[in-house]
Description:
Layout: H1 2-18, H2 20-41, H3 53-57, H4 60-67, H5 71-82, E1 85-89, E2 92-95, H6 98-105, E3 112-113, H7 134-144, H8 150-155, H9 157-175, H10 177-182, E4 188-191, E5 194-199, E6 202-205, H11 207-211, H12 220-223, E7 228-231, H13 234-247, E8 255-258, H14 260-275, H15 282-287, H16 292-314, H17 322-328, H18 339-369, H19 372-386, H20 396-399, H21 403-416, E9 425-426, E10 432-434, E11 437-439, E12 444-446, H22 449-453, H23 456-459, H24 470-473, H25 476-485
Parallel strand pairs: 2-12
Antiparallel strand pairs: 1-2, 3-9, 4-5, 5-6, 7-8, 9-12, 10-11
Helix pairs in contact: 4-14, 13-16, 14-16, 16-18, 17-18, 18-21
The structure holds protoporphyrin IX containing FE.
Pathway: Secondary metabolite biosynthesis
Cofactor: heme
GO molecular function: heme binding; iron ion binding; monooxygenase activity; oxidoreductase activity, acting on paired donors, with incorporation or reduction of molecular oxygen
Amino acid sequence: xxxxxxxxxxxxxxxxxxxxxxxxxxxxxxxxxxxxxxxxxxxxxxxxxxxxxxxxxxxxxxxxxxxxxxxxxxxxxxxxxxxxxxxxxxxxxxxxxxxxxxxxxxxxxxxxxxxxxxxxxxxxxxxxxxxxxxxxxxxxxxxxxxxxxxxxxxxxxxxxxxxxxxxxxxxxxxxxxxxxxxxxxxxxxxxxxxxxxxxxxxxxxxxxxxxxxxxxxxxxxxxxxxxxxxxxxxxxxxxxxxxxxxxxxxxxxxxxxxxxxxxxxxxxxxxxxxxxxxxxxxxxxxxxxxxxxxxxxxxxxxxxxxxxxxxxxxxxxxxxxxxxxxxxxxxxxxxxxxxxxxxxxxxxxxxxxxxxxxxxxxxxxxxxxxxxxxxxxxxxxxxxxxxxxxxxxxxxxxxxxxxxxxxxxxxxxxxxxxxxxxxxxxxxxxxxxxxxxxxxxxxxxxxxxxxxxxxxxxxxxxxxxxxxxxxxxxxxxxxxxxxxxxxxxxxxxx
Length: 494
Ligand code: HEM
């Protein structure tokens, strides 16, 4: 009898298992178990920290938030709701307190960059930004620090002046459409790819695409178009470098034209999302239709760096720039950097130096442009300082100690917070104590810079307002609190 019951039971089970609905129902069950079990097991002891329930279960929640372009503002809202500690993913806690900056990023903190940075690698070699190894980073810093010395940076002023002068002349050209329109000319038009219109005695244009700070070295300013030549095949161009290093022949490879600033944005959007996705899922995520353009952008951006390096090698007498300095870098054996490492570092300089400066300067221009009071005050200070100087572009020596200009720049860096997200770090062996909480080795931690820059307890009721005077008016403890919370360039060894 028992044998018969067993046979019926197995037959029923087989019938259920053969139904597609069974497998469909099983998928959410498996997903829930895969997410809930680690949450309950809690190997890093993070269950005490508050946060959105989805964030506690999966890093997919932050990937989605980043994909919506809401990383900094979402984290800021979460800290308003939950306080200093917020769980952003199963292994990540965000800590919104100025004291956490030094504890996490400081020289003696010992924390390393998180796996987040693996998404930023485009070459076999890592660069100074995406290497996670402390030893490799120290080696790179030793070999490349000469590029960032005050003397090297000052040597770039002549080159920067040429690009600034080109920018000013493009903007002057745009302004000349006002009298042109008043004498019967067209009231709308294009300068390169920059659309303008004359209205109310003024010319209106979007300074972001028309600034093209990123494009200056690629001739975009003068052509007024988002365009740059890049290596068509990364593999072939790196092979050409290798061959040239052996034979001394000129580096030649096939190139193509791309809208570089647009491609840069597409790539940046994908990279930030991938940073929150475990690496085993990267190739799957990149195949999703939403991320296809970002995936195609990566090798193009890498090709841009390779083409820039090749151009520089074949024209060593060109104007002074950071690529020159990079080519002068030598490793500990006195050898120049390999083609792969050279391209990876050049890629970093183009990305880290261009997008940040373009976004910061465009945001600050916007804040100044919309407030005539600030504009007039800044102009008065500059007019006085530059009174005796006959040049379109201000020499650094004439403007390096202007209190209101400094205040405007600091306020732009604070309010806009170009790098507003908290750069993620991994707690080292032995753990780390921050504000009385002990974090186990392997936990990811970060300090949300945008939140610190907008915290009313530090900046006052007008924290969200662009008010440069705060940098001049604040004194004593208040000023110290502001400076302790101000970290637009992060701090410590990175
Ligand atoms: C307004 C302009 C800029 C801002 C706000 C900015 C901000 C930052 C921040 C916050 C980091 C740390 C990122 C992290 O830990 O993940 C960083 C790293 C870096 N930045 Fe900038 N940056 C700016 C301009 C530049 C320029 C002009 C260059 C060079 C041409 C540059 C080169 C680098 C490099 C090489 C790193 C990596 C450092 C390392 O990991 O050792 N940055 N920047």
